């Protein structure tokens, strides 16, 4: 039961990754790409959580935590570059 | 019983994640696309995290709190990123509901 | 140990003097003199022993495994030279104090002089030949510095280079000779080598050994045909010439001849090579000296001639001749040093060294004139002066050789001719300078030099007289021990009387004196002849041609390899790597795929790989739109960290994630100052060529990875896994390896990190570059800075992030995490504040000065390492004990955690150092001044 | 699975090499980043692959991945960042001094 759910979930998230990646590739505008990257970070978190449940090991939460954090910082930096060019001022 | 609950949460989470990316891919201009991922980051990952919290709390000793931390991060940061992205889009003057222009090197 | 310290003292003293010169010129002089005296004091307790006939040998273990020790030896010869070096050294130091003008740096000259003094002492006091060679080369180097003391003068630099090139080449030859000697005798110790003379002479390698050693000696002692560097070295300040080119440097060569005399001499080869070179040099130097118009030039050539004389004596190689040679070493040192000093005084007072412009200086400086005359007379070999005694001995030897060989009569004749010229140029040195009319347009009006500038000359001239008059009472014992230790046998019968009765030698002396006077009187036509052919037949031309050719070839080779294009170099480099890899693999026909059982492929990995492929290719295609490429690279980094997660490397995943974001921030910061797009410039053909190479390399590396991955392996990792908990007190083996098992490596690595941070900081300090005021589409920047929602929320996030980093740092020893990761988390958290709230806000709460953080981090890491010394363990041994931690639960608190803390601080410091200063750079308009903080 | 990783390593290397051969500093730096991904993965793969066996000692685990390459690569990643920073600053310096961003300093 749980394993079935997990495999279905993996498929869904995989599909999500593909879709986001497509947007990342396609653009067309810079914000689109940034948004896509942000989404991919979210997908990665989902992926990690699923992996953690799948392997039954809690060692991957730090990764998830950091991805959440890094995704945010990356997005902020990229956006600020678009807005200001110089991101640390 | 618990297993059903877990399965439901996992499926729901995965579904929302998928829907988010679907929106990102399919919607027709940036501002609408902006909606998609928010579902993924809040509902999608939220459900999954609750699921894993339940999972680990029940099978291993003690309740695991990392998920709460992750959720906290996501819920704080999601609006900020969205806000900034919208700002950037406005700044670059992306027109709403216009067909995506061809992607060529900008002069 | 005295000998060791005696040699060491001048080297240390050089530093001291350089420092002392900050307090004034006299202080420097006093310090230098003190150093020389100290060296002398170290020797003094041993002085009596050589006279008692014993040879002092003192040994310091250096590299016993390869038979290299620091061995010093004091015998008669060494004593004689040490005496010359230190004694004349002291006089020169005193003299130089008054010679140098206010502009010249005292400290530098004295420091160089002492360096040279130390090296020279090392040469004459060495027992081990390798050690001797090291000091030998040191004399070449320090003399280079001394000759080029007036750096701004082109002649000085040229002369110094020439001297270094010639003597350096000679040193190389000498090394060869010494190695051969070691091969033959099986030892580099003089005492062994001197004892095994017959073995060496009998050996098949004798001739090459001899030639190599002689090359070393002849170049150093300016023997024909290597003599030409000495006149050019006259560009040195006169005190230097007085020291190096009379008593010490050029004497090193003849010292070597004397030192190895028992080992190498006594064969016809020796006689012909050494004697021949000596004879030519003697004659050539004497002849040229007569026609030089430059005061020091004359002295230089006369020095060459006298060195030739000494060499000739060693070439004759009868015990008597050796005694004469050693004796002339002493005499020449004394009178030539004083003559150089006198020349220096004249130069110093008149401002010129051209003898055609100065006459009749007698009336201005009678006292100096008198001194010069005595010294010159001694140089000419006039009776009652010391020069006469040794020259007389030479005449005796020469006349005896006459009867022994066919053409033997050539020897006395040549020697006499040389003597005639010697008298002539000595006469010229005196008459042209001090007499014969009035001086014409001298730069200054000369007068007697300051009192203390004359004292050294007086001392030396006095020695000329005393030795000349009472040789037996003064110099005899020193000469005896020196000659004895040179010969390593019993001394022959000789007496240092002035009057030997009417023997051939006397007539030769008379001829030389009379002929010299006559020659001086009728020198005019010869002089004109010489001026016509000046520089025509000169080994220096050959030397220059040689050098030119060398330069040309070197340039050709460089131009061939490096066309100044990085692209080309990288292409060639990678191409070669590929070629070598291919050759290596095709070399042995091993199968590509190993026997290791493979892991099953799952759909998700396949999918992610596919996506990664697409995105990576997209980066390559879109790389001209730099921002887009950067965003895509962000995704690639994410996937790489996911790969680490997948293959059970959580620590790596965390590190990769953090570094990814930091790198993106870094590249964004840089991109602001760079063009937003790369132009299309490389030809399609070239692009396809590069693409082909890239594919080949990628294929090769992939195949290699595959070959590795499919082969079974056994790793030292098992040891770490087994001992991590018991030995390192942590269950996260990766972290335990980093901070405990291989802690020393990590220390090195964080040092590199710190250095990189500092280097970036240093580069940015000087960098002034302003970014564009508009973005790529020519749209102005958005000016409402930090949106309030972002600002306030990120401030809320900061404590959360810091909490996470502390958590990761603490548990790192047992669960994924540790100093590196925690440090990066903190750095990112702080960078986040810079992004969201701006520099001003952040710096009002946090200092931008990260150097202390880095420093403290390194300090802590090193101290924890040293801490283990306290408990008698080797460096970086970790100790640990259990403790109950409120929140995280039970874990061991290992001393390695302190080390990890050090790592943490360094990582935070270095990362912020780089990013913040890169970010602040745009603020560094020249008006704002540097830093911006 | 091994084949996939080997492919990825080769892919990253190829992209890195191509970019490193470009004429402008920024693509070259990107290329170096790619190459360092590839190198890190390659070094990591020296320890062979294992799934779900992180080198963290615990009672439940029956096997562990090889920790040595992981330790090496961990520091390699961090120092790689420092070196990237150094190179990029050199690039900026060249831009400031030469007025263009060509690797050979001339347009």
What's the total number of strands of chain D? 0
Cα distance spanning the termini of chain B: 61 Å
Return the domain count of chain D.
1
| Helix run count of chain D | 3
Biggest beta sheet summary of chain D: none
Rg from Cα of chain D? 18 Å
**Based on the structure, what is the oligomeric state of the protein chains?**
heterotetramer
What key attributes describe this structure?
heterotetramer, B: 107 residues, mainly alpha, 0% strand, D: 107 residues, 3 helices, elongated
Can you tell me about this structure?
The complex is a heterotetramer of chains A (89), B (107), C (933) and D (107). Chain A is built from three helices and no strands. Chain A is mostly helical and 89 residues long. Chain A has one domain: Helix Hairpins (Orthogonal Bundle). With 107 residues, chain B is mostly helical. Chain B has one domain. The N and C termini of chain B lie far apart (61 Å). The model of chain B has no long low-confidence stretch (mean pLDDT 81). Chain C has 933 residues and is mostly helical. Chain C has four domains: 185 residues, no CATH class; 254 residues, no CATH class; 90 residues, no CATH class; 208 residues, no CATH class. Chain C contains 38 helices and four strands. In chain C, the strands form two sheets. Chain C has a two-stranded antiparallel ribbon. In chain C, helix 2 runs antiparallel to helix 4 and helix 15 runs parallel beside helix 20. Chain C is elongated and about 115 Å long. Chain D has 107 residues and is mainly alpha-helical. Chain D contains three helices and no strands. In chain D, helix 1 runs antiparallel to helix 2 and helix 2 runs antiparallel to helix 3. The relative contact order of chain D is 0.14. Chains in contact: A-B, A-C, A-D, B-C, C-D. Chains C and D meet through helix 27, helix 28, helix 29, helix 30 and helix 31 of C and helix 1, helix 2 and helix 3 of D.
Q: How would the blueprint of this fold be written?
A:
The complex is a heterotetramer of chains A (89), B (107), C (933) and D (107).
Chain B: H1 2-26, H2 30-33, H3 35-59, H4 66-92
Chain C: H1 2-20, H2 25-43, H3 48-51, E1 56-63, E2 68-74, H4 76-99, H5 106-125, H6 129-147, H7 154-185, H8 190-195, H9 197-202, H10 206-220, H11 229-232, H12 238-247, H13 249-259, H14 261-264, H15 268-291, H16 295-316, H17 319-350, H18 366-380, H19 386-404, H20 410-434, H21 451-469, H22 471-474, H23 476-487, H24 504-521, H25 523-532, H26 539-561, H27 566-587, H28 603-622, H29 626-646, H30 650-671, H31 684-709, H32 717-728, H33 733-741, H34 743-765, H35 788-811, H36 819-843, H37 851-870, E3 880-885, E4 889-894, H38 895-920
Antiparallel strand pairs in C: 1-2, 3-4
Helix pairs in contact in C: 1-2, 1-5, 2-4, 2-5, 4-5, 4-12, 4-17, 4-21, 4-23, 5-6, 6-7, 7-10, 10-13, 10-15, 12-17, 13-16, 15-16, 15-20, 16-17, 16-20, 17-18, 17-19, 17-21, 17-23, 18-20, 18-21, 19-20, 19-21, 19-24, 20-24, 27-31, 28-29, 29-30, 30-36, 30-38, 32-33, 33-34, 34-37, 34-38, 35-36, ...
Chain D: H1 2-20, H2 25-45, H3 67-98
Helix pairs in contact in D: 1-2, 2-3
